[in-house]
Design a protein that fits this description.
Layout (H helix, E strand, L loop, with lengths): L2 H21 L9 H10 L4 H5 L13 H8 L3 H10 L2
């Protein structure tokens, strides 16, 4: 298999995972952000910059809290408060 094909598979799995999260009816979706960030940092992919139209100057190859907030149609602050409430 080619490296490009492998990356396409990784990108597909990431996006399907995010889609699954976004349709779940979770009381506190912010609680999962830390784990989601760790997973996406481990399997870095330029898909995040492409999907969220990030600047090429300093792209992050993992999902950010404000991206999760956009996907879940909530605010970054609300998710951050939920994540902190679990600590």
């Amino acid at each position: 298999m080619s490296k490009e094909f492998d990356q396409d598979i990784i990108d597909f799995i990431f996006m399907d995972f995010i889609r699954s999260i976004s349709i779940l009816s979770l009381a506190k979706p912010g609680l999962m952000y830390k784990s989601l960030k760790i997973i996406t940092q481990e399997y870095r992919s330029p898909i995040w910059s492409e999907v969220f139209n990030r600047e090429a100057k300093n792209p992050k190859d993992y999902i950010l809290l404000n991206n999760v907030a956009d996907l879940l149609n909530t605010t970054r602050g609300a998710l951050n408060n939920q994540a902190k409430s679990n600590q």
